[in-house]
Design a protein that fits this description.
Elements (H helix, E strand, L loop, with lengths): L6 E4 L3 E5 L5 E5 L2 E2 L8 E5 L6 E4 L3 E12 L2 E12 L3 E10 L5 E10 L5 E13 L6 E7 L8 E4 L4 E2 L13 E8 L4 E6 L11 E4 L2 E8 L3 E3 L4 E3 L3 E6 L4 H13 L15 E3 L9 H13 L4 E4 L21 H13 L3 E6 L3 E2 L4 H5 L14 E2 L4 E3 L5 H17 L4 E5 L21 H4 L1 H15 L4 E5 L16 E2 L6 H14 L6 E2 L12 H6 L5 E2 L23 H17 L5 E2 L12 E7 L2 E17 L5 E7 L5 E7 L2 E17 L7
Parallel strand pairs: 22-23, 22-32, 23-24, 24-28, 28-29, 30-31
Antiparallel strand pairs: 1-2, 2-3, 3-4, 5-6, 5-11, 7-8, 8-9, 9-10, 10-20, 10-21, 11-18, 11-19, 12-13, 12-15, 14-17, 15-16, 16-21, 17-18, 25-27, 26-27, 33-34, 34-35, 35-38, 36-37, 36-38
Helix pairs in contact: 1-8, 5-7
Amino acid sequence: MKGAPNARLTDGVLTIEFDAGLHSRISRGDTVLTAMEPGEAIRLDGLGSNGQRVVDRFLLIDQTRETVSGPHGAGHVHRLRGTAAGGIEKRVSVTFLDKYPGLALLDVQYRNVGTAPLAVAGWQAATHDLLPHPDGAWSFSGASYPDRRDWVQRVSPGFGQRNFMGMNASDYGGGTPVAVVWRRDVGLAVGHIDVVPRLVSLPVGGQPAGTRIAIADDEPVLLAPGASLDLPPVFVMVHEGDHFRPLDAYRRLMAERGVAAPAIPEPSYAPVWCAWGYGRDFTTDEVLTAMGKAKSIGLEWMVMDDGWQTSEGDWKLNRTKFPRGDADMKAFVGKIRAAGMRPRLWLAPLAADPGTDLLRDHPDMLLLDRNGAAQNVSFWDAFTLCPAYPPVVEHFRAQVRRIIGDWGFEGLKLDGQHLNGVAPCYNPAHNHARPEESFEKLQDFWKALYDEAMAINPQAVIELCPCGDAFAFHNMPGMNHTPASDPTSSWQIRLKGKTFKAMMGPSAPFAGDHVELSDRHDDFATHYGIGAIVSTKFTWPHDPVNTTDPLPPGGIALTPEREVLWRKWIALYRANMLPKGEYIGGLYDIGFDKPEAHAIRAGGGMHYAFYADTWSSNVTLRGLPPGRHRLTNSFTGQSLGTVSGPVATVPAKFDHFLLIAATPVQQKVSA
């Protein structure tokens, strides 16, 4: 029969079937997820109606199976080989891992077995259409765009994103090389697990046949006779729920390959006050005055933001604010510490303003495209420096030594949308082996700065804030704290929080960013409920006269009414410290479950958060341990009765949020 499999590969959860042409079909258990379709293809130049020919059918020649053991533990690998007219051999290795049921690693190679060179225009792998479901589908995309779109989106008719992992604007690029599509009952994820970022795309789109997902590359390659093209190592995963489980599996795979977040110091969880409410035109007096109020309401970090410097690039002290230079900055840091706060300083590495001494004396530091043009950083009207050029690395290592070693700051806020990814560099002064080195070695740049800071202060907090980007996973070893990075809504804060708890670990030190950026400008419930570190940029005792960002309606001053609310949320945060708990991301689906729900295990109990504009119906508590549990409204303190685990349903009526703490009821022991 047409489409009948010639090879059936399975680990008992994920099944991949191949037909005689090496087309494939994916199932999860008894549920068929895709049709039999060309999962891999290679495009050749010089043939076909559009100047290219797609080769996606290869005659299956042979297959083998053997047990394996490697960095991901024990498993078994299937090796399939096929050929296509024109002298192309395709080899596919499918590895199932014992400790990752439902996941397979794909290694694909094309070899020119002909006598003439082959002009390869591009390739695609793990290309499948998740079959449609009456309730539709949701998606996660790990690419960065200048419109700062949501990472999680519903798949509507005509929806589509290329999800290129390189630059999608002059200063927006990079990301996490994973794409996920899911229905209410099942999902499909694809990504690459190379230890360096790759300039590939992970397109997602709504198709008549379902929701398409793939990994692809459009970089041309000339394959000489006998030469091979090895694709990046790819994983495919079938799963239940939203994108959390695939990203959690990706995190564990990458850790086994040596790419992982560092150990988290205790100060990374301390609540944050940032002076950015005053903008660049702050005065040290008004900052210190407001900082005293921040301390009194329970905040611990004081973050000095943009404006202390003369320019991006030179990083000289602004003598209007620090007339005696280093002496004044050291004295300023001393006052912060004397007040019982922790000082952290803003820095925008890799940005350099035109006209700075740095670019006058070291124009060789610039990242240049193939036409010799600099890469723009739009927010500061600056240019990007090349992170793979050793003098650039040393320049910023010296800045870290000055800020943490000499001035005494206890942390750094490394900020800017340009931090997430950079374009290939063609600057001849850098002697790159390949232009892509700049993109691939950005992770090494961040790790160098992180290591410099740790050598001075092992408890230093290194915050990486790639404003509006989809965080680049490969940069994670170079930071131990990250915020929601200029969220456009409370929904973005929550979806980013869930994503980070998967990518960095269930106790990830993720901050909600300034609460003033959330819905209604006071949505601490979003920070608290997802286990985010609370953060604010209020001014006090009044709104700033001049500020860089426009003030929201009602301003950002900590009025007496706001102070009551701020104190309550900060006290609740400090009492339970949910970010240090275990975020259990597989219990609820952020797309399909209504109301939106999150759960954290902390302090011997379960903490639930529900979100909706308005809700009047039941909510379900999942993941309760067996036995009886006492329920309390975390925000109001109201008793909500008792329930039995592991799943309980309770009536609820709320606007915006409901927070429930479930505490085990101690059973009396009979005499």
